[in-house]
Amino acid sequence: MIKRILVALSGTPFTATATKYALDLAKLHKAEVTGVTDVDIAQLMKVGPVPVGGGAAAASLAEHRIHVTEEHVEQAIADFEHACADSGMIHCVDRETGDPFDRLIALWRYHDLTIAGLRGLFEYGVVEKPDDVLIRLISEGVRPILAVPKAYRPIRKVLVAYNGSMESAKALKQFVQMDLWPDIALQIVCFDMTPQESEPLLADASSYCRAHGLAVQTQHVDGGPRDHLLECAHQGEADLIVLGSTSRARIFKHLLGDTALHAVRNAEVPLFLTQ
């Protein structure tokens, strides 16, 4: 059950899709929606190395970047408020005044799900060191995160990457128990195992999901998830991928580099990222 949804309003092309998913889920679950701006002004002021005598030009460029970004964010806020009003959803907007991610982390304490653009952090210079930001958000407790692409698609088929670890079991259970979308079909996939290793894991996982009334298929893939996860999702026509991780930053950073970060940078479907 979810009753409060947090949406990152960064003013990038991903923001409209994030709002659409948030409002769809809010309508399904009779939930409230909070929009929060997540633009790092300090990062926008950094224009790189400045040659001698180029200080004025650099300052002008930084001012221009801030002005354009603020315009995009204001438009995103207006679009968000308009869409919420048209949908009749209870909503509010939190305009951060300091570190946007400190505020997002603080707001998470009172929300059930965070929705953000899949690659807004990476493609638009919104924040410095986006890899570290993603690690920080999840290690600080901002999970689950629904990271969405530019294009909206209804969620009907869901791929769950599963290896029997405590982290992947928690991710599977949290996704199933939240019951975000009705009548979805799950495809539970084990990667990089022998059939003898994956068969009992897939049987137990599918039994758990069927006990919750879900339609389930299972699949064994010989290769690792980094190389085959997105291909498997494409072939299975999945509309969403569920990924778990450990909350320990050092290990999570390794996992991001190996699988989850690759998916964030390359997936064309939403990702449900959790511990």
Description:
With 275 residues, the chain is of the alpha/beta class. The protein folds into 2 domains: 4-148, 3-Layer(aba) Sandwich (Rossmann fold); 157-274, HUPs (Rossmann fold, 3-Layer(aba) Sandwich), CATH 3.40.50.620. Helices cover 49% and strands 19% of the residues. The chain has 10 helices and 10 strands. The chain has helices at 15-29, 41-44, 55-87, 100-108, 120-123, 130-139, 166-178, 195-211, 225-235, 249-266, and strands spanning 4-9, 32-37, 91-94, 113-117, 145-148, 157-161, 185-191, 215-221, 240-244, 271-274. A 10-stranded mixed sheet has the order 3-2-1-4-5-10-9-6-7-8, with helices on both faces. The longest helix is centred in the N-terminal third of the chain and has 33 residues, at 55-87. It is globular and about 55 Å long. Residues 246-257 have low confidence and may be disordered.
Main sheet record? 10 strands, mixed
Mean pLDDT: 81
- Identify the strand order in the major beta sheet: 3-2-1-4-5-10-9-6-7-8
- What's the helix count? 10
Could you tell me the number of beta strands? 10
Layout of strands and helices, then pairs:
Layout: E1 4-9, H1 15-29, E2 32-37, H2 41-44, H3 55-87, E3 91-94, H4 100-108, E4 113-117, H5 120-123, H6 130-139, E5 145-148, E6 157-161, H7 166-178, E7 185-191, H8 195-211, E8 215-221, H9 225-235, E9 240-244, H10 249-266, E10 271-274
Parallel strand pairs: 1-2, 1-4, 2-3, 4-5, 6-7, 6-9, 7-8, 9-10
Antiparallel strand pairs: 5-10
